[in-house]
Amino acid sequence: MTEVRCLLEKRSVLGEGPIWRPRDNSLYWIDLKAPAIYCFDVITRQNRQIPAALGKTIGGMVFARDGRMIVVDGEGVHDLSPAGHRNLLANPETEPGNAFNDAKCDPKGRLWSGTADIGETRPSGSLYVIEGQAQRRIRRIDSGIICSNGPAFSPDGRRAYFTDSFAQEIYCYDVDLDTGLIGERKSFVRCSPDAGFPDGMTVDSEGYLWCCNWDGWSVTRYAQSGEIDRVLKVPVPRPTSVCFGGPRMDQLFITSASDGLNADQLREAPLSGSLFVCEPGVKGLLDAEFNG
């Protein structure tokens, strides 16, 4: 049985978005609701906050190929200057009450990020793909989403995964990497109501999808067919996102949240909000970087 261990004990409100950076031997991650970007050095075991003038919340963060940080939030898509100031790159969302949530790049460096209803009731969110090479191109490829979460990509980049957490369903899209054409939404798997809500995701080197289960105390590994391969139990009810990293890319890092838990629940799960790690016996892939 795979042992999930606490890597950093911290009561983050809504820990999210882990990214492994081999050049730093570090795990970058964010807190959405106490907005911050952190860098955890696995050698020194020190967790430091990156200086940044963020908005009221942060929805996601990726790196660009030139090393800049790209953040998404309620005001659009931004890059961060060396001094940590936000510079607006794009804001395609026109629906009041929506904010960007979660972000990931496909192997060609296209940024995938969805919007969500801040009140988490209306299916007013959309899924966008943003390219930024010679000329920035923004496409809305899906809509009718309550809570956008977890873009992830197959190793060859020809399948994209995405979830609307409140629909308790993971979707997939066929992608033509060369042309950028994206097929219609297809159902990948309907999650069991008693397993929690599908949240952040990643894909390992064998093409299996790993998905955190909010309120499910677990992370599920799915085969390409959608069948459950295994379920990792974690010591907190609200795991939020996952990524592979470590010197051999064989460690699975897991973020978590304390948001919304009452005093009794926090006594039952005192590590809520912390970072976790395990060695699941399979290697992962580095997250791609933005091409803009």
List the SSEs and their pairings:
Elements: E1 5-8, E2 15-21, E3 26-31, E4 36-41, E5 47-49, E6 60-63, E7 69-73, E8 76-80, E9 86-90, E10 98-105, E11 111-117, E12 125-132, E13 136-145, E14 148-153, E15 159-164, E16 169-174, E17 186-190, E18 197-203, E19 209-214, E20 218-222, E21 228-233, E22 239-245, E23 251-256, H1 263-268, E24 275-278
Antiparallel strand pairs: 1-24, 2-3, 3-4, 4-5, 6-7, 7-8, 8-9, 10-11, 11-12, 12-13, 14-15, 15-16, 16-17, 18-19, 19-20, 20-21, 22-23, 23-24
Q: Would you list the SSEs in sequence order as H and E?
A: EEEEEEEEEEEEEEEEEEEEEEEHE
Spatial extent as radius of gyration:
17 Å
Low-confidence stretches: none
Which CATH architecture would you pick? 6 Propeller
Assign the CATH class. Answer: Mainly Beta
**CA(first)-CA(last) distance:** 42 Å
Short synopsis of the structure:
The protein has 292 residues and is mainly beta. The protein contains 1 helix and 24 strands.
Describe the overall structure.
The strands form 6 sheets. The protein has a 4-stranded antiparallel sheet with strand order 1-24-23-22, with no helix packed on it. The mean pLDDT is 96. Helices cover 2% and strands 49% of the residues. The longest helix is centred in the last third of the chain and has 6 residues, at 263-268. The chain contains 1 helix and 24 strands. The N and C termini lie far apart (42 Å). The chain has one domain: Neuraminidase. The protein is globular.
